[in-house]
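=== RUN LOG ===
request id: a7f3
mode: sequence -> structure
chains: 1
length: 155
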Amino acid sequence: GQNSALSADSGPVTQAGYVVGTPAYMSPEQAKGDRLDPRSDLFSLGTVLYLMLTGREPFTATTITAMLIAVATDEPPAPAAVNPQVPPDLDALALRLLAKRPENRPATAEEAAALLRQIEARLAATGGATAPVPEALPVGGPWEDAEATESELRE
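=== RESULT ===
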């Protein structure tokens, strides 16, 4: 399940030889094994917001290693490119939360929450539509509920 640690020869580690966490929700710095700070959690929040706005995760891959590389290097399409009904401010916030460099994300969760409240107030004041909740789509990949083979980890 999501709480299981997958054995790995390389990658982000909290114990020697184990990838801990859900790769699709890891920040780029976590995927690279770099030092983490609270902005890493804001990247994960951006992944959840993206999923809520579009019905899909921002990064896709077929193996753990490919997912870690995608998170660390790929730029997701803007949420509004996937769901044109996403308001521009919410689109911009989702992309800011998914910034590769932590210093380009909101500095704190409080700042991210304040930005969300501002967007909500603007939408309410202008009668702006909010993005419709997309139909539930399957989430995840072969890394969920399965142990990774060494060949998958080396791809």
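=== NOTES ===
The longest helix spans residues 109-126.
The mean pLDDT is 79.
=== END ===
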